[in-house]
Amino acid sequence: MAANRFTRGRLRRLAEVQPEHGLVLSVFFNLDPSEFATPAARSTEVNSVVTAAAHEVDAAEDLEADERQALRHDVERVREVLKSSDVASGGTHGLAVFACEPADLLEVVRLPHPIESRALVDRQPCVEPLVRSGSGERWCVLLVNRRTARIFVGEADGLEEVDKIEGDTHRQHDQGGWSQANYARSVEQEKLNHLGRALATLFTRFKRHPFDQLVVGAPDELVAEVEEHLHPYLRARLAGRIGIDVENSSAGAVRAAAAEVVDRHVAAVERQALDRMAQGIGRGDRGVSGPEAVMAALEQARVEILLVAEEFDAPELDEALEKAIRQSAEVLVVRHHEDLVMHSGIGAVLRF
Fold it and tell me: What are the tens digits of pLDDT across the range 198-245?
């Protein structure tokens, strides 16, 4: 059993699960703290959804006796694994659990955002709710001033503090002459040493646990210097800046401040992909739209980016998402632009 955050690699591995025998139970739990703030409330919700999963198994048609029995066992496996852990630990606001005893599958995916509670039985894991819930990109926020550096990592709405580096930079004083000049040089060197330690810590964390995008928060007089000294790998991931109290801001305040940068980044990514699709359609080569054309391109493994409108809901959706994920195509749920309205809600940028 694995219990981890949602990532694109995990999504692909789940989409590739196709048991030779038996069915997969997919169960989703909403743990929104605004609705389920206490352990008792969360426990009640979990029990309710697991009970609904048991009813789903009992109501499933055309099952062989051993398939139904395996699914009933999977329901109990889900119940037990959730009973043995704090379901809301680490800022978890939603859970997805996938179980299939014949395929030796029991996987828990923690989400930093709420998700609709429900249970489904099918031939493979239901990954569509995970795709709609977010991009799975890992973000990092570096807050740094002359005295302190703090590093936050996670999905955009699940950022948590993972490192804090304290410097020993002296404050300026009012002595003059050579003493003042020497002291100024000492203060400047201590600042550089502190920045060096902070950026080295950041890069070490990146090498061990890579992230996709970086946000920097620093005083105006320091921010350009911080960005200039970033390792090139990190500078390439720089998505924007935030203005925030470096030393005293809570994780919630950091998430809120970073949200605008995240929103601009996501909108820009969507815009670029939509423009590529439109250009490809115009040339008649690397862009298609509409369910029929997109499904044909997926059958030919030609899709580089699958674009789906947030409101799109059609019989082809689950199959399209599964094919795209198994082919390592990027999947974008478009939330900031209306371009897909004229394309029946779905389109694609093609590899060839």
Answer: 999 999 999 999 999 999 999 999 999 999 999 999 999 999 999 999
Residue owning tokens 């995240």: 262
The residue type found at 184 is: A
DSSP 143: E
Specify the 3-state DSSP secondary structure of 236.
coil
Q: How many CA atoms lie within 13 A of 5 on its CB side?
A: 23
Residue 4 has pLDDT above 90, yes or no: no
- What region, left, alpha or beta, does residue 104 occupy, with left being phi > 0 and alpha being psi -120 to 50 degrees? left
| Structural fold of domain 264-350 | 60s Ribosomal Protein L30; Chain: A; (3.30.1330)
CATH class for the region spanning 2-133: alpha beta
- 111 strand-pairing partners: 94
**Start-end of CATH 3.30.420.60 domains in the chain:** 139-249
Residues 6+ apart with CB under 8 A from 185: none
Judged by phi (left if over 0) then psi (alpha if -120 to 50, else beta), residue 154 lies in: left
Query: Among 73, 116, 123, which Cα is nearest to 95's?
Result: 116
Token pair of 48 as six digits: 């309710």
Structure pTM?
A: 0.82
